[in-house]
Amino acid sequence: MENYIIEMLNIRKEFPGIVANDDITLQLKKGEIHALLGENGAGKSTLMSVLFGLYQPEKGEIRKNGVKVDINNPNDANALGIGMVHQHFKLVEIFTVLENIILGVEPNKYGFLQEKDARQKVIDLSEQYGLQVDPDALIEKISVGMQQRVEILKMLYRENEILIFDEPTAVLTPQEIEELMDIMRGFAKEGKSILFITHKLNEIMAVADRCTVLQKGKYKGTVEIKNTTKKKLSKMMVGRDVNFTIEKEKAKPKDVVLSVRNISVKSKVSDLHSVKNVSFDVRAGEVVCLAGIEGNGQSEVVYIITGLEKPSSGEIFLNGEDITKASIRDRSKKGISHIPEDRHKYGLVLDYSLEKNMVLQRYWQPEFSKKGFLRFDNIRSYAERLIKKYDVRSGEGPTTPARAMSGGNQQKAIIARELEKTCDLLVSVQPTRGLDVGAIEFIHEQIVLARDDGRAVLLMSLELDEVMNLADRILVMYEGEIVGELDPKKVSVEELGLYMAGSKRNTKKEVAHA
Question: What is the pTM of this model?
């Protein structure tokens, strides 16, 4: 008989209008990396939240080392050696790295905080596991990749032996993903047991020992990774074959829609510029991708174009009109759609219903408003149409609070809203972040359709496969400058990586504009 460190047996978890986990059994061996795979809304994060004590199941039981345990809250989980890195980090932004790591388990003597000992322990752990951090840095000032290191160090500080990673690579660069994979392998060699939620089949094949697949809240099976393929896993997950390559015709660019001229942006953390004199055009009927390692100015360029920030110098033109000083609403009205990088901060009002989020940038239009009053029937029928078309899964349909939806379905809601809006320019940042392979296939098709419909598409993605597949032109940014303009049909992933790392650049344009 197999010895399991954790067993979740016949777990059932319900929410209003939906059974998130329907009789699911998951068994984790000591020292293994066990992947949990499923479509958006399949119940993966819910199942892990049950294990971590955030939710209480209606049925089923949890065993550790064969003994039934009660996990009523995260403190119970931590006492049992269970730690969790959440998909959306649970960090206090105005606290330092050290303060976040020790929060809730502060070492004290006679009621006084023993910060010196805690600091040394954090430094020792960061060196031991290759997770270098600055203990005194504020969370709001460090990168997303660094914030994830803080979450991992929180688990290590508490000496957890069962580590749950919920979509850990969704917000990381390719280099950071490789580092995380190595860290996870190191944990497993030490005897720690890892539960790893992801949509990325390449990562599962690279790092996992076994994989459990969920589909619409039900258990589909557990497989040994050495005995399976990406194609088999994707079919188990979505119930059909998935096309991993994007089928599209050659682009037929027309007039310039977006013109960025000599844009510079001052850095928030130094006297230098995070964007330096950047200029480029995007034409109707083409997908132009801003590629680069995170932190090289791509985000700032997107913020300038969409109105979230103002440039220190330079100009932005949309269809020949200067919009440099235009408000976000004016830019939206003039024809810019924006799928933002941070869906919680810029994409949704989390406490609004799904239907209200679907019309956030259109509610004043005659279709949805009359004499200053909202036309709720029209809003609901519009939302229902988008929910069906984009397969946005929610427990209570259009009335579901956005906060109650899975991360992937929140993303699909934003994409539905932005693609259905009449626009000339689609600014799409990490559009498939946190989505399953079936949803990625569909979203890629929609972006290509937008291009073929004559829209200009500016894509920013850290997924090199997505860049190579979707882009008609690639603009590589390094240290705030465009260092290369490349044709994805003529450049290899390896060469693209050299440009992204700053090892190579071209000063003349290598792609002829149509």
Answer: 0.70
